[in-house]
Structures are given as C-alpha cells and as structure tokens.
Design goal:
elongated; 174 residues; two-stranded antiparallel ribbon
C-alpha cells in the first residue's frame, strides 16, 4: 500500500473524545470517491478546497488541496496541500496529524512535506488518503462526535511510577 502510517494504543483507562483540537469529528470523506458532490470536485480542480490540520509543531494551519494524485520520491497517489496564510502547511514534527475539511471530516493523514521551498517560497505538504489508511488496517475506524461521547480504553489506568510507589508505601504502612 502507498501509505506512511502507524497505530498507537492508549493505555488502559484513558478517556478520549473524538475531537480535533476541540472540534468534533464528523466522520471521513473519501476524496477518491467518483461520486463526490460536484461542488467538491470543482473546488479540488480549482485548488480552492480548504483543509486544516493541528500539528504538534505548527499548531493550527490552513491549506488548499493542489492534487489528489501527487507522487514523491517514496510514495504515489498522495494528497498534496499548499499553505494558506503562511509559507508552510506543516513542519517537521507534525507527522500523524489528520487533515480535515470545513465539515470536520477527516480526508487525510499527514506524513511529510517539501524539504526546500518552491519558487513562491512555499513548502507543500503531503497526506495519505484516509480511506487508504483505513484500508491498510482492517478493523480500524474513525470515532465520530456528535453526540459528544467519551471513549474509555478498556482496563484500569496505571498510576505514574512515583505515585504508585507512594500509594504502595501508604497501603503497607496501614
């Protein structure tokens, strides 16, 4: 598969919400679907289809999709994104952030970007199509929110080692 993705597992007892930086997730949108609404197809063709991401390094950024079938040195069939309001959409350290649209639907999973700026001074970013990521991990699904739901990872949450040691000493002391 032409993807660059990994899975992480929450520790037992961790509570999570299906949100993107306090924005509720409303599912996914397969940008490769031949049945996409004409307005979306036109926006992608005109390079005006807006997307967003919230990365560890860049924070919240805006971009527009410039291609659904971009190729890099390592992967093909990627979403290519140009920045809006700055010279980059993502930076090193943002890999793994989801790319989502105005409707809070996840469309991609960011994995990399240009090393060198283009003649415009911008650096474009690349994302796997979310539908391809889901296809590579059978059984994986995207949690949605609304209604607001708190998801709890099964099991009992472990205490940090220092707290666990103090708790054990207090229990032993009676």
């Amino acid at each position: 598969a032409d993807i660059d993705a990994a899975l992480a597992e929450f520790e037992p007892g961790v509570d999570t919400k299906a949100q993107l930086h306090n924005v509720p997730v409303k599912g996914i949108l397969d940008l490769l679907d031949p049945g996409l609404p004409p307005a979306i197809v036109t926006a992608i063709q005109k390079q005006t289809y807006r997307v967003f991401q919230y990365g560890k390094k860049s924070g919240f950024t805006r971009g527009v999709i410039t291609s659904l079938h971009s190729s890099t040195l390592t992967l093909s069939g990627q979403i290519e994104i140009a920045p809006v309001d700055r010279k980059y959409f993502t930076q090193t350290g943002d890999s793994g952030s989801v790319v989502y649209n105005d409707s809070n639907q996840i469309v991609g999973l960011h994995w990399g970007g240009d090393h060198d700026p283009r003649p415009t001074g911008e650096k474009h970013s690349y994302a796997n199509h979310i539908i391809k990521v889901l296809g590579a991990f059978p059984g994986l699904r995207i949690a949605t929110n609304p209604p607001e739901v708190i998801y709890r990872t099964p099991g009992v949450r472990k205490l940090p080692p220092m707290v666990e040691r103090v708790h054990r000493d207090l229990v032993a002391a009676g």
